Amino acid sequence: MSLGWQRASSRSSVGAMIELEGLTKRYGEKVAVNNLSFTVRPGIITGFLGPNGAGKSTTMRMVLGLDRPTAGDVRIDGKHYEQLKDPLTYIGALLEAKAWHGGRSAYNHLLCLAQSNGIPASRVREVLDTVGLSAVAKKKTKGFSLGMGQRLGIAGALLGDPRILMFDEPVNGLDPEGIHWIRNLMKTLASQGRTVFVSSHLMSEMALTADHLVVIGQGRLLADTSMAEFIAENSRSYVRIRTPQREQLLDALHGAGVAVVEAGDGVLEVDGDKSEAVGELAARQQIVLHELSPQRASLEEAFMQLTAESVEYHAHDGQPPGAVPQQPPPGQPPRQQWGSDWKRG
Amino acid sequence: MAAAQVVRSEWTKIRSVASTVWTLGLAVVVTIALGMLISALSKNEFGDMSRRDQLSFDPTFISFAGTSLGQLAMIVFGVLVVGNEYSSGMIRTSLAAVPKRGTFLFSKIAVATALALVVAMVTSFATFFLGQAMLGDLKASIGDPGVLRAVFGGGLYMTLIAMFSMGVAAMLRSPMLSLGILMPFFFLISNILGNVPATEKVGRFLPDQAGSKIMQVVAPIDDDVPYGPWGGLGIMALWVIAALVGGYAVLKKRDA
């Protein structure tokens, strides 16, 4: 992907970082963002993961100086957003969809942004081309589909050829082709040495795109780790066991020094890849097993466990009126039934 | 952040939405058409007027009768220029591009005011000459004492109304709320306050009542208004400044 026009000041990628220090946002009694400190670095995609309402969007708005922090600080290239001259040439952001006037054409929307930051009008054509909206450049944006809207938002982010890009839930509402396009775009941007900071509430999405992971829940930092480390630490393997001779098996396992937890419904779980050891132990003691199956917790489950305590809106404590009660997906314990139906925060 | 860049950007914004054309177009058409109509009706009724009314007959002011309705379109223009940023969500994109909020707001207001001033001046002179044409023998001449001031002032009045609306919309951050307050206020409430004896003395310090004094050439008999044409416009300007300062304070303080 050619990003064409480039401003002299934005060539170097040294220090194109977003630094948060003790960033806090309170709305009255409610703490939306609680003492967040982390750094987003260039050359990789940093995933910003958390359930809806965890404070991701609020954090991103504070990065852009749209919301004022109650306490703490956030800096771009060591400066406050307000101190950046022509900020779109430092950092481009896709905030929520449709942050523009529907009566204005896509071209004019981007043109007014370009002019405010001293970006040449020719650049507007380039980014419209990059996102594939050239054919509808003169159309009013109110007729745009969700996917076209996301593309226009991304065009606005790319406009100033910035070294830092920030995308808030970019795949929301996109079709598979659009999702694929955005993933590739982010990878390309990162491979060019840019800083890419992308939020999502879906672990599966992050696992596919992010190199580094920042996880928050209820505004607090829960993890700041590389994706590889997160996977290694969190994809727990265990053995699932069912037996009619529960007490005997428990005694046998305790005797052998194997830790076991009762997972309910008569199911026992043993941590690690121990199915062979458990099977042999049961055979020696002549204990009948109805099930002995190695399991691997998904990243999604790991994320759920990490954020479980901090999830603000559990589906089971107060469904929104008229909401269809959701069944937990098969294979997941019912106590972790939150996920797709959190209310937006 | 060069303010000139932001001014260019705001000009692109204002010229690229349809509401600019229809609000300002409506202001021109309504002001002129209603002014002509009332001028024509006044000419026909002059003979039946009391002596007193004939003495205070003000052909210049009558040709500006359309302003009472035309100003509503100016209010819509002023409200939409600022309020659309909030209702569309554009404000977040705009402030991300121009984080210096004072530069953003006052560039926007400067561009919208300049455009409103041009349109209002053209409207004012057009409504004067066309209104006078309807008045026949009763007409005033642009060279008569105070007339040029009144016609020029009519343009300033319409511009200040638009500016006041921009300030209110910046304070309320919603076009619907702003229109819901400004339209009935200027169309009804201000008139009622200005005409009920108990509230008359307060009512005359409201922005439109004070400001419209500038369009008057012949003062009514027993006129006890404590300010002159420029004094009245000054009072209106103070209201405008207050609204803009309020709007700026809200924009500066609130999260976008």
UniProtKB/TrEMBL annotation, chain A:
Domain annotation ABC transporter: ranges: 18-243
A GO molecular function for this record? ATP binding
- The annotated regions of Pro residues compositional bias extend over 322-333
Keyword set, alphabetical order = ATP-binding, Nucleotide-binding, Transport
> Cross-referenced PANTHER family, in alphabetical order?
ABC TRANSPORTER, ATP-BINDING PROTEIN
The record's comment on protein family reads: Belongs to the ABC transporter superfamily.
The protein, known as:
ABC transporter ATP-binding protein
- Which source organism does the UniProt entry give? Streptomyces hyderabadensis
Automatic annotation (TrEMBL), chain B:
- Output the lineage of the source organism: Bacteria, Bacillati, Actinomycetota, Actinomycetes, Kitasatosporales
Residue ranges spanning the membrane: these are 21-41, 61-83, 104-130, 150-172, 179-198, 230-251
Domain of life of the organism encoding this protein? Bacteria
Q: What is this protein called?
A: ABC transporter permease subunit
Q: Which organism is it from?
A: Streptomyces hyderabadensis
Q: Which UniProt keywords apply?
A: Membrane, Transmembrane, Transmembrane helix
